[in-house]
Amino acid sequence: MKKRVRGAGARGAGPRGIKGARGVEEPRHSSASVAPQTPRHSTAPRRAALSNGLKKKTHKPASTVGPGPAPLSTRKVQTYPLASRQSRVTLSDFARPHVRGASFQDFLAGLPQILGAETLRDVVAAVVRARRLGKPILWGLGAHVLKVGLSPLLVDLMEKGFLTGLALNGAGIVHDFELAVVGHTSEDVAAGLGSGAFGMAKETGEEVNRAIREGDRKQLGLGASIGRYLERRQAPHRHVSLLATAWRLGIPATVHVAIGTDIVHMHPACDPAALGRTTHLDFRLFAAQVAKLGGGGVYLNVGSAVLLPEVFLKAVTLARNLGHEITDFATANLDFIQSYRPRVNVVERPTQGVGRGYSLTGHHEILVPLLAAALLESSDIS
Hints:
This protein has a domain at about 120-375: Deoxyhypusine synthase (Deoxyhypusine Synthase). It is built from 14 helices and 8 strands. The chain has helices at about 45-60, 105-110, 115-135, 145, 150-160, 170-180, 190-195, 200-215, 220-235, 240-250, 270-290, 305-320, 340-350, 365-375, and strands at about 20, 25, 135-140, 165-170, 255, 300, 330-335, 355-360. A 6-stranded parallel sheet has the order 5-4-3-6-7-8, sandwiched between helices. The chain is elongated and about 80 Å long.
């Protein structure tokens, strides 16, 4: 007797499945998930292993990430006691608080002995030394120095022997003349430029050029020509004129122009021949003063970024070419920006190996009064 085969609905039928037409057992359709079996020759495990192996090879410790050598170790760094080190700044160099009612001398003494404050002391010492030795103290001034109201201080320094020679650019004589004649200067350039009125003040154009022509006939330099004219004209404010004061005191005052840079060159009264002769004479007069700087003299370039530094450099080489020894002297550049030409043509090149060069940075209207007061406080003025 044949054994009965149980069907799908027979008692005890398990989850094995149902045989199909060919007797192959087919899986039941169930909501339960069944993990697929991996074929015997599947490549999935191999790919996974390769992937894991690549990840392990590209992962490096933090100390060796990136190209180049490994970072240096600091474990064997050699140190020394702080007390044994020589330091450039100590508490004795620090500033002292100002006490209300104290003197200006106390204020100066209370400045820190560091950087700019120490440079200020060095410049003061150099000028005081030059005055004591009777050596030239030459001031080369840009026109801005006059425009910010410093003429009375400079006149005072001239009268007290702290300014023995004056050099200006061409714009300087314009401001000096207008201050002496009418008591004001410095026009609004933008307001007059559009209409062509800029620089066309009648008195400035006519009288400055007249002074130059008259001085040229007297074989004077340009600076002396303007100073002489203001004194003879009895300009009402000539007491603040640097050129009139220089003429009155017998102090050399030179003016160095570049033709076309100043408003007086636009006027029909301008005589180019007289202008050229007088300013060239002034260059030679200035060079004669520079030739005497050796042995303690000082040149201060204040507010001229191009013209006067170039003039000073040529005066130095002319004097040395003619056999004048310019050693043991000092130069200084005072300006609110330290430009290339003052740095190399005033502070560095002329003094290299034979003198001392200083740079002080600050607004003229603050720095020059500070220097002037320091000079007066540091000297025995007779």
